[in-house]
Amino acid sequence: MKKLQKPKHLREGSRIAIVAPAFSFDMQAFENGRQFLESRYKVKTLVLPSIGEKQAYFAGTDQRRAEEFAQWLLDPTVDAILAARGGYGCTRIYETVLKKMKTSKKKIPPKIVGGFSDLTIFLNGLLQNRNWVTFHCPHIVSRLFREPLKL
Question: What angle do CA 20, 23, 29 make, to 5 degrees?
Fold first, then answer.
C-alpha cells in the first residue's frame, strides 16, 4: 500500500465545504450547525445554493449530489468537506464522483472528508482509491455536532 496522504490541519480561516450527498434535511438544523461551526472554530463554510433541494427523500437528484461532491473535492481552495447528513444515497453517486476525480486534469491534494452512516462509502473509497486519511465524525445537522456528550 502506498503512503497515506494526510490532509492539512484546519486552522482559523480554513474553508470547509458542506455537502448533501444523501438524504434531505431540516434547513434550520443545517443553519444552526453551520453557524456553530463558523463561530466556534472561526472557519468559512461553503455551500452551493442547491444544497436544500429535495427529490423524494434525497437532497436533490443523483446528478446534483454527485456534481456538488465532485466540485468541492476538485476545488484546491477547499480544506475540508463535511456532510450535512447521512441516510441513503451515497452509493448511488460514488462511482460518478470517483470518475470525475480520475478524469480531472487537476492535481487533487488530500483534504479532510468527514461524516458517517452512508458517507462510509466515500470515507473508505477515498482511502482505497486515493490513500487519503478520512474522518468518521458527526453530521452538521446532528445534535451531537452542536452539543457534544458530557461524560
Answer: 70
Average pLDDT in the chain: 93
Q: Averaged over 63-80, what is the pLDDT?
A: 97
> Grid coordinates standing for 97?
464522483
- Decide the pairing of beta strands 112-115 and 135-136: parallel
Residue 131: closest CA among 113, 117, 116: 113
**Hey, which residues does 82 pair with through a beta bridge?**
18, 114
Distance CA 71, CA 66 (A): 8
**Distance (Å, whole) CA 33 – CA 139:** 9
pTM assigned to the model:
0.93
Q: For residue 58, what are the β-bridge partners?
A: 23, 55
Is a pLDDT exceeding 90 seen at residue 143?
Answer: no
